[in-house]
Amino acid sequence: MAESRKNGGELVEEGRPLFLQIAEEIESQVLEGTLAEQERAPSTNELAAFHRINPATAAKGINLLVDRGILVKRRGLGMFVAEGAREQLRAERRRQFADHYLTPLLAEARHIGLEVETVIQLLRERAEQNT
Fold it and tell me: How far apart are CA 131 and CA 124, in angstroms?
């Protein structure tokens, strides 16, 4: 696990580019609903000042989200959360979840001779234990 350090009041993962962390922070705010669709997103300068980083680094994170259609530029007004951004992020996260967790889980299940129905039942049982 990567070490973390304090930077401007926020934890920063060592070894992970700051611009990615900026993009992920905004994504999380959109997913949580603390940054709503059509709402103004923090500016490059606001992010740079808060995190005590170079504005170019903050802009790189913002531009990643613009390129993916999560944020949209409104000339003279700033960056805003795109309509449909929350659902787009949820769909992306579902795909990532399936790729990172379900595919290896099913491969291991096949390897040890578990049928899909058995895996589903195990998941249901575990979910009931954790509620």
Answer: 11
pLDDT in tens, 109-131: 999 999 999 999 999 999 999 98
User: What is this structure's pTM?
Assistant: 0.78
The answer to whether residues 75 and 104 belong to one domain is no
- Using an 8 Å Cβ cutoff, are 40 and 24 in contact? no
Q: What is the greatest pairwise CA distance in the chain?
A: 60
Which of 72, 52, 75 has its CA nearest to residue 62?
72
Q: Are residues 59 and 104 in the same domain?
A: no
Asked if residues 71 and 80 have their Cβ atoms less than 8 Å apart, the reply is yes
pLDDT of 50 > 90? The answer is yes
Structure tokens at 59: 């802009």
- The CA distance from 9 to 2, in Å, is 18
Which residues sit opposite 12 in a β-bridge?
5
